[in-house]
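At this stage, I needed to go through a protein sequence along with its fold in token form, as given directly below:
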Amino acid sequence: MSLWQHQRRLLQLVNQCKSIVKLGFKFNFLKSFVSLFLVGTVLSLTLAACSGGNANNSSAGDSAATPNATPASAKGQDVQLTLVSFAVTKAAHEAIIPKFTEQWKKEHSQNVTFKTSYGGSGSQTRAVIDGLEADIVHLALALDTKKIEKAGLIQPGWEKEVPNDGIVSKSVAALVTREGNPKGIKTWSDLAKDGVKFITADPKTSGVARWNFLALWNSAIKAGGDEAKATEFVAKAYSNVPILTKDAREATDAFFKQKQGDALINYENEIILAEQKGEKVSYVIPDVNISIDNPIAVVDKNVDKHGNREVAEAFVKYLYTPEAQQEFAKVGFRSVDETVAQSKEVKDKYPVVKTLGTVEDFGGWDAAQKKFFEDGAIFDQIQAKKKRS
């Protein structure tokens, strides 16, 4: 029906309403109650018609207020996912996402598009808590994911919803040196020697730096030291740090651009990615190391709001497949899939770490944070002692 036909029909309904209202007033009040009741009923029905169906509009309004109450997949419409991740995963996700969307389209006849955001893990965590409506978060450490959980956005037990306790990518720590390694830096103990300076970020502000601290502490414990020996060693090592940068990016700039220090602690995957971009980097992977584990999680509150839980969960599970894990391995991450990890191509690329510690050795991230990084904990004690000396 054209616009003018709609207008004409509406005018006719309005005139009918006026006529009936006038008719109602012409009735003699002495008419029977039944007659008045019948006229009133007719009048009510006609006025309802004249209102344009407000009852239906009200229902539609409620539906509009919660447009994703029905899952997008059930409605057969296109669906969008928002992925928030830490910066160095970008290359992997850019290769994985098209593979997933193609498979989903083939199996479900539904288009899936992605909005992505990459940045420092800590800043990404704060952004999600402050309102960035991520459907999926892939972060540098489980401590960040736990913060989003504590904010009420992720349900407890998220790490048990997928394989490998929620860890979907991993790396190890590397010691980057000056070309030719003039100071002969090969192990963690070399960082505590007189005359050696190395660069790392501040564990109080950087997630990467917390891994660096744990790598140093772990090396002392694995060498047979007790906590007193470990504290002494880590304190000596941090006395050789000329500047604690805010984050890993600033640490990298301090080492490469400002030429500070003889060594830099960094992720193995960042170095491999830099080499793939044509940069020449001198580095070693210590035989005693820490497994830098990166978790993935669905943000429950947001996927329920957006009605895209089914697709979000499917994407997370897809990241564990050999196809996806191969893409992580190509850009520097150690695979969590054993089939991929044991392939000749991957084994040739990644040196074997003889003694590998994990954050679970310290009781998990909650315990490690409390023991090492909270105000007044071991790291603060080390820094206070450094300032007094």
